[in-house]
Amino acid sequence: MQNIVVIGGVAAGLKAAAKARRCDPAAHITVIEKGDLISYGACGMPYYIAGDVEDIEDLMKTPVGILRSPGYFKNVKDIVVRPQTLATAIDRQSKTVTIKNLASGTEEQLIYDKLVIATGASAIKPPLPGVDLANIYQLWHPADAKAIRQGLEEKRFKNAVIIGAGLVGMEMAEALSNWSIPITIVEMKDQVFPAFLDAEIAGIVSKYVQDKGLTLLTAEKVVRFTGGNAVEAVETDKHTLPADLVILAMGARPNVELAKAAGLLLGSTGAIAVDEELRTSDPAIYAGGDCVENTNLLSGRKVFAPMGSTANKHGRIIGENLCGGHAKFKGILSTVVVKIHNLNVGKTGLTEQEAKQLGYEYITAMVAGHDKPHYMPGAKPITVKLIADAATGKVLGLQAVGEGEVAKRVDVAATVLTFGGTINDLFDIDLSYAPPYNSPIDNIAVAANAVMNKLAGKLKGISSLEAKEKMTSAQTVFLDVRTPDECRQIRLADCKNIQYIPLGQLRSRLDELNKSDEIVAFCKISLRGYEAEGILESAGFDNVKVMEGGIVSWPFACEKN
Amino acid sequence: MQNIVVIGGVAAGLKAAAKARRCDPAAHITVIEKGDLISYGACGMPYYIAGDVEDIEDLMKTPVGILRSPGYFKNVKDIVVRPQTLATAIDRQSKTVTIKNLASGTEEQLIYDKLVIATGASAIKPPLPGVDLANIYQLWHPADAKAIRQGLEEKRFKNAVIIGAGLVGMEMAEALSNWSIPITIVEMKDQVFPAFLDAEIAGIVSKYVQDKGLTLLTAEKVVRFTGGNAVEAVETDKHTLPADLVILAMGARPNVELAKAAGLLLGSTGAIAVDEELRTSDPAIYAGGDCVENTNLLSGRKVFAPMGSTANKHGRIIGENLCGGHAKFKGILSTVVVKIHNLNVGKTGLTEQEAKQLGYEYITAMVAGHDKPHYMPGAKPITVKLIADAATGKVLGLQAVGEGEVAKRVDVAATVLTFGGTINDLFDIDLSYAPPYNSPIDNIAVAANAVMNKLAGKLKGISSLEAKEKMTSAQTVFLDVRTPDECRQIRLADCKNIQYIPLGQLRSRLDELNKSDEIVAFCKISLRGYEAEGILESAGFDNVKVMEGGIVSWPFACEKN
């Protein structure tokens, strides 16, 4: 009968314990958790703060409302869970873990045959003046979430400032905006989601959240927090922002102190190094969840990318391997999806920036379109950016954003990436089709198509960022081929040379354009822009480009009527 | 300069023409269409009838409201489209097509270098007495849709009968139920969606639509239609059903008369045979869309599976190949998705029945669960059935049904099938995760997990159909491990031996069960049923099974309070 000790009782740890129990009914399994809560849905906290989830306890219950308590784990899974218990040291020689009961202060030692480290990660707390003032939160524990929600319900917060425009920061922006208080997001980098979106996609998100009334300050650095007992202002290198609620969302770092002190190998990312079977440098010790590093399947590089879905996969694999299995975890694609108001944002694989850094010869295409046939009620636009290897056509990554359905497209792309598929494969897939769900040619197939057309030299696309740079050039004419009605409603702002010729009239009005000019054609989504390119090229214009994504994906200012 | 003639101006034909124009700016391209409308979204007709789409013309417009008329195709794409023109004969020797203007009756001949046949399919009209009575429709042309919608708006229809419970029939049931008239569906086979759902999944759909008030008559054959000028009743081999609106939805057959008369090869399915480049037996003639047969990628067999998404892919490939390209269409997975009220139903790859017929040694698992974390507002259950090769673990097919999100799971599975992936691959995929979209372990990963557990002998599952058969056995005890509250709300009906022991009490109440009995454990979704199996087996019970899918997926009667 083997002794299994698991350090950490949230996601990976408890999953490993449960799976081990299934594989080895006789094992003695103990889970140590330093907090007072176990097995909670930490990812659900923003939705509790938003008010979408009524009770914080819902995050700790099974779907039928049973609290995942130590008693539940004992009764159902015969697993001993010890909350409020800290593992203070691992002695690998004697195979013992020293634990400390945080309530009573008593220490004892647990003997293990196999040990699992699932100590998770912690939110980064910047060493800035005033960072310990009251009402500065990190949203890392349900207690934080409860305090924030209570303050919102009691209308104690008048000005919220969120530091960091990554996943947690933007989810919190969404959550807080339910409470009708002014929200400012301060981001050090020059865009939102700097870790996983290219600039032109991030620009769409920025424009959207600003339209919804959020203040977004990018390329701006927090210097200090001021106030008496509680925070009153956030000082950046550019502004002083009144703030009585501050959320620190500056990322996370793995909790590796225990592993490090025990002499286990850490990886280049600073997280615990594990092999494909999630074994540490000590074969009796496994590690999983937010405290380990993962392999990015595309780059082959080690990454620190804490994610609840990965932690659960780790748990299952560790559970099997604790019982003699040899299950393998191959790696991740750094897939993410996030909802901000009604905007869906997702990404899988490499961004263009990453592809460039890794030295790929790549090609990209960005397409916009409805997520289902335009005639269906509820059809909404999405913009998809696809990145592929120019030589082989292998898909490298996909980003998608819009009020339409995004997650499905991201997941299909993630699946293609898993198998090393090409843009041709992506186009070929027999995806489900019916008008309530999508168009006969799905948005991602359209994106694959656009990449193929660019590779074949038929589509000469430029990004919205490149187009923006050309706006001030005297040699570049922007050609808007939308209908007069559409042009009346919304137009590109700040454009030096722009001509409006509806697509249907283009063949008969070619003399209004000059063959020596560079022409940038576009429309609402730039499908007509692409038609215009074809018409112009067959008429002998040889410097025509299409602004990819059209007005729908334009991240800069527009004039509206 | 080559002459391209395309016969058929709806999906594949116009797509081929447009793509050819892009690849060959100089070609002379003519599209012949026998109807008066071109390029309409035929798949949208049920939603027009339902009233979701206001105007039938919306189905013929571009997303910005421009009618896809012959003038539009001429102006934008330099393609000549001739509506109301029938192709009556192909002379392959002289490479001419004889066409007839249906308005004027005049005939002429078109010379082609390359010909495309995209003649589509026609709804099957059974040779039954009375089938030509007024108000019996086939929903194959917008004119039918207009007539039905008008009758509904004028409240002329009091009783609708739909013949056929396939895709069109069930979409029409959904559409008509918006108009609050009694609807009866008559299906010859013994289940809904006989072409693509296994019985236990079809049973979930049947139960759902009957709960919504539709009358479903399966294993029942229409014998005749009666009435004066208009239909008044549908007579089946079992009933006489009053009917003043009848929809014939008995499937389709390919329009191959023209191809056959020209001596082109037809395939075993009766549709036009084409190679991977979509060339017919005459190298100057391509064919695509609903009139050709496709290869099922899993079985390797030829199938007739008309689908708008496939037709559009065909069009693109033909367009390239018309201009010297060698693009290939590899085949289909017979993926489908359909919405009925709020129920989403989808399938990709092989059903269990098909896997059996093809001689696979297969394994299946059916799992139920919320489509996102249960604490999120709007979380809804879905049931997923996964079919895999027992020897290799290769995924063979997936079916999914529920009010929760289904299409995404079907599309991920379709992608896995495209690459010949295994259940391990399916589990591994780094799918996007955030609480508004899914749980950390997505439903399809849970299904993959269940198959792995069954293969490893850890989960002994039986289907709801097998369980139903055991209900009358004296040697079988059904063990419901839900909470007393849940059991009060809903219970399996007609179960001879049933015991109620909540999971948390099971370890301490083992003496209430008999080791010589066969025990079928279950709960709401049978996750606790699986836990119960583990507890019982570790206590020495060796004949325990789990009823897969639980109460949520139970297609038979329940008692409710």
Return the average pLDDT of chain A rounded to an integer.
Answer: 96
Strand content of chain A: 25-35%
| Total of domains of chain A | 4
Largest sheet of chain A: 5 strands, parallel
CATH domain topology of the largest domain in chain A: FAD/NAD(P)-binding domain
CATH homologous superfamily heading of the largest domain in chain A: FAD/NAD(P)-binding domain
Structural class of chain A: alpha/beta
> Uncertain regions of chain A: pLDDT < 50 for 5+ in a row?
none
CA distance, first residue to last residue of chain A:
75 Å
* Biggest interface, chains and residue tallies: A-B, 101 and 101 residues
Oligomeric assembly: homodimer
Number of contiguous helices of chain A: 16
Apparent shape of chain A? globular
Question: Which value, in Å, is the CA radius of gyration of chain A?
Answer: 27 Å
Task: Just give the CATH class of the largest domain in chain A.
Answer: Alpha Beta
Q: Percentage of helical residues of chain A?
A: 25-40%
Would you report the number of β strands of chain A? 32
CATH level-two architecture of the largest domain in chain A: 3-Layer(bba) Sandwich
Adjacency order of strands in the biggest sheet of chain A: 3-2-1-7-18
Topology:
The structure is a homodimer of 561-residue chains.
Chain A: E1 3-7, H1 12-23, E2 28-32, H2 45-50, H3 70-77, E3 80-82, E4 85-91, E5 96-101, E6 107-111, E7 114-117, E8 121-123, E9 136-137, H4 142-153, E10 160-163, H5 167-177, E11 183-186, H6 199-211, E12 215-217, E13 222-227, E14 231-236, E15 240-242, E16 245-248, E17 252-254, H7 257-261, E18 285-287, E19 294-295, E20 302-303, H8 308-322, E21 336-340, E22 343-349, H9 352-357, E23 362-370, E24 381-389, E25 395-402, H10 407-418, H11 423-428, H12 443-455, E26 461-462, H13 464-470, E27 476-480, H14 484-489, E28 490-492, E29 498-500, H15 503-506, E30 518-522, H16 527-538, E31 544-547, E32 558-560
Parallel strand pairs in A: 1-2, 1-7, 2-3, 7-18, 9-16, 10-11, 10-16, 11-12, 26-31, 27-29, 27-30, 30-31
Antiparallel strand pairs in A: 4-5, 5-6, 8-17, 13-14, 14-15, 19-20, 21-22, 22-25, 23-24, 24-25, 28-32
